[in-house]
Amino acid sequence: MRQFIVAGNWKMNTNYAEGLKLAEDIASGSMIDNVLVVLGLPATHLMGISQLIGKSASIKIAAQNCHYEKNGAYTGEISVDMVKSVGAEYVILGHSERREYFKENDELIAKKVKSVIEGGLNAIYCCGEKLPVREAGNHIKLVAKQIKQGLFHLDASDFKKVVIAYEPVWAIGTGVTASPVQAQEMHYEIRQMIAKKYGTEVAQQTSILYGGSVKPDNAKELFMQSDVDGGLVGGASLEANGFLKIVHSFS
Ligand code: PEP
Predict the structure, then answer these.
(1) Cα(72) to centroid of ligand 1, in Å?
(2) 150 lines ligand 1 (CB under 6 A)
(3) pTM of the entire structure?
(4) pLDDT, block means (10 residues), the chain with 251 residues
(5) Which residue has the least CA distance to atom 8 on ligand 1?
(6) Domains of the chain, with CATH numbers?
(7) Of 30, 62, 89, 183, which shows the fewest CB atoms inside 10 Å?
(8) Which of 183, 143, 190 has the alpha carbon at shortest distance from 163?
(9) Could you tell me the distance, in angstroms and rounded to a whole number, from the CA of residue 95 to the centre of ligand 1?
């Protein structure tokens, strides 16, 4: 059975005290069997919140980025080992904000994915099209290219450590959500691509999350789609009750 995941992406929000309080409020909520909660934290919060959460089977910590090199003269960057050493188990990679504002391309992100997996962590690989691409009907082609370039250098065994987040850029932070049908269509295509490259078993075991204005009132319908295995949640992950409601959309 595939792992269902609800991942929060806090982006550049909350100071440390606010972050601790938010994490405490989330951790004190009830969790659900077979739904993993992943908190995507600012780098400054990783260690403290990891200590707060401890060795939980239902909540894991993610960094929002890392460098592909092991160490060296890369001022301002953090390495896979640094992330790992403070207890995080996931790294969000290729988020559209990293692609847009920091000019990250598939080639760079592919290197990061490899380093994260070689370092023993899990990669949450984000992909998704901008609005003009969808309007031109090229969204599946574009996402297929991102998947191929960002992930298909990996071996089948690496895929155990890959989670994919399909996040149409036009839905991120806009309040406009992809319809369940649009989400399912893309997730199905992604799974077919993985099946073609690595076989049905790998494809069936890969968790594919939807991201883009997931809220407590739309999560259930999205998560009910057969190829949607959960969500990557931005804005709505910053409020504990709402986030926990999204987690409970699976029940
Ligand atoms: C995101 O940042 O990955 C995201 C999906 O944001 P939001 O939920 O706010 O649209």
Answers:
(1) 32
(2) no
(3) 0.98
(4) 95 98 96 95 98 94 98 98 98 98 97 98 98 98 98 97 98 95 98 98 98 97 98 98 96 74
(5) 234
(6) 4-250 (3.20.20.70)
(7) 30
(8) 190
(9) 9
